[in-house]
Amino acid sequence: MPDRLITHLRHVALAVPDYDKQHTFFTDTWGLSEVANDSGVSFLAAEGSPEQYIVRLRKADEKRIDLVSFGAATPEDVDALAARLVADDVRIVSEPGPVDTPGGGYGFRFFDIDGRTVEVSSDVATRQHRRVEEREAVPVRLSHVVLNSTDINRTRQWYERHLGFALSDSLSSPHMGELMHFMRCNPQHHSLAIAKAPHPSLHHISFEMRGIDEYMRGTGRLLRSGIRKIWGPGRHLAGDNTFSYFLDPHGNTLEYTTELELLDEDAWHPHVYDFTQPEVTDQWGTANPMDEFVAKESFNDPDRGVFVAPPV
């Protein structure tokens, strides 16, 4: 594994046809705050996060993932990573240079092995944020993103080799084999996970809440709003985090979570958990059962952004 130059997950950028409906959902229902808007591109922040924004929303003819953005510590690390990727024949989308989004910074973009656009940046100005108060059911920060792949071992190995991610745990089934790899770029159990699916797409984006009470209040608010719940509330075994999954207006799965496990990376050894065991999917036993219908929702639509760089 190369030296790790990635520090954390910054944001996920989505494109959607019904921009107004999605924007209203993210701000009025999900609990994000708009910090900037530029000609059909909205930058949405979490109140408790120093990141300038954690979701970028763009109006487009087709639904797609525009990009997944990670942080690096310094411009020198950005340059070193870019040089490493070029030497390994990774397709570069944009060369290292100034980042023209809220907070500025220095970064570049490239395609991962599945054709998703990935951005890595440093020196982005921190946002003035605040403490999320007790009983305030809004996201504190972006927790993790899970991506669908047709070959999860190939994708896992690509992220290990090129970006220095490490495997935390895996999910497997006696009948279907390996189903998901949880990957970390810091002591958080996973900032990224790779899930088995028929096509590359977004599996889900996860948002961390202040605590269990705020997580449950947020879950209840969405249920009362008539938002379709896919799975939860419950607590996973891998990562030991809580989960409530909902569908946004364009069929993307979004998660409220809290208490994701922090690892001692020097002592940690990955587990392979049997996904068919109820306590693996939900330690509490409170969530609806994981079945083929729940799994199918997380396959999402095939991503129209594969090997097509976003226009902004």
TrEMBL record:
Residues 8-123, 141-259 form the VOC domain. It comes from the Bacteria. It holds the Pfam family Glyoxalase. InterPro entries: Glyas_Bleomycin-R_OHBP_Dase, Glyas_Fos-R_dOase_dom, MMCE/EMCE_epimerase, VOC_core. GO terms for molecular function: dioxygenase activity; lyase activity; metal ion binding; methylmalonyl-CoA epimerase activity. The keyword Phosphoprotein does not apply. The keyword Transferase does not apply. Transmembrane segments: none annotated. Signal peptide: none annotated. SUPFAM superfamilies: Glyoxalase/Bleomycin resistance protein/Dihydroxybiphenyl dioxygenase (SSF54593). Keywords: Dioxygenase, Lyase, Metal-binding, Oxidoreductase. GO terms for biological process: L-methylmalonyl-CoA metabolic process. This is Catechol 2,3-dioxygenase-like lactoylglutathione lyase family enzyme. It comes from Lipingzhangella halophila.
